Amino acid sequence: MSVQDLLLSPGRVGETTVSTLGQAWAALRAHLSDEAELLRIVDTWPVLCVWDAETGGSLAMLAGSEDAWARLRADPAVWGRVVDAQALTGPLHSYLTFRLTRGVWHCAAALPLPYPDDVVAPEPWPGHDLACEASVVGRPLRLRCRPTM
Fold it and tell me: How many CB atoms lie within 10 A of CB 89?
């Protein structure tokens, strides 16, 4: 089986510098080799991502510090969508997994911050590899994540 690794580190996806979820998604797509059958993501970036639950569109990307939830609450338009579950939150690998599976999976191998009671947290990463949606990457691809946050 052909395995490809992808490191998510502060400000970088693989070798590409990123500062938005859109850039992170584009960097992942550019990083994928045509031969990979399994993509192993190693997430070392403690960032809190917020995206639209229906479209996967980017809403925010906040440093995973103690005040991240307070900063998110300070934006009433985004916060209202988060508590109504119209927007999802999670670490970067959770966002990329959501996009690679066309929204089937909202899961995380580790969380950068404890979750408030009024926010839907990602499910724990399952004990198996996930199948990416073939129409997203153009071929069958399995996904595995190992956080080091």
Answer: 30
Listing DSSP states for 113-136 in one string gives SPPPTTS-PPEEPPSSPEEPPHHH
Distance CA 74, CA 127 (A): 36
Distances (CA, A) of 49 to 55, 59, 84, 135: 14, 8, 16, 24
Which tens digits make up the pLDDT trace of 96-115? 999 999 999 999 998 888 99
142-147 and 38-43 beta bridge pairing = parallel
Q: How far apart are the first and last CA of the chain?
A: 27
Write down the pTM of the prediction: 0.93
